[in-house]
Fold:
Amino acid sequence: MTHFGKSQSHTLMLSIRPEKPEDYEAISRVHRSAFGQENEARLVEELRKSKEFLPELSLVAVMEGEIVGHILFSPVIIQCRDRNVHALALAPMAVLPEFQRRGMGSQLVEKGLECCRRFKHQIVIVVGHPDYYPRFGFSSARAKGLEVPFPVPDEALMVLELTPGALDTISGMVLYPVAFNDV
Ligand SMILES: CC(C)(COP(=O)(O)OP(=O)(O)OC[C@H]1O[C@@H](n2cnc3c(N)ncnc32)[C@H](O)[C@@H]1OP(=O)(O)O)[C@@H](O)C(=O)NCCC(=O)NCCS
Structure:
């Protein structure tokens, strides 16, 4: 639980926990509102239907009973020359516009990465704002030998090794779940 100062007499409490079925509608609302379109809300709904979906890595930020943020990590495959390696993609992530820039997104990323480590995942890939994710340890994925089958500027394609050296012997194409094709 994190305390967010609102005034001296009223402190806002943020908690981060795995999603529950009763959160689905609110999660879609957060994405619609933050992205200003349907695509990411629909993506989460589609991913949730797939058998690879990891509910323990779909986390909500809750403030005074209201869902104000969401982060999802989905399984991806890195197609190496001689084998397939499991990794995660961080996407999508959103905080309600009226709650942005108060550190909630950072809390979601940090708590999310902690959960990924707890469940023994080793590699997290993100396509996102190059000014945002390096603060959590993400760095250029192409510099580490990873590629994606869609156009992305170098600086937006980033990776984090949850275990140091996890990418030392790994390079190749990162394959996302098909639901990402429509985003
Ligand atoms: C990205 C997002 C989840 C961050 O949530 P947040 O609660 O505002 O994040 P924090 O308060 O922890 O961090 C704010 C930082 O994010 C940066 N940031 C937020 N949105 C950004 C954007 N669109 N581009 C670049 N940086 C951004 C701010 O510059 C700020 O950095 P600073 O602390 O150096 O000023 C939120 O802005 C959001 O929902 N955006 C719309 C959806 C989106 O773009 N999702 C991410 C897809 S990769």
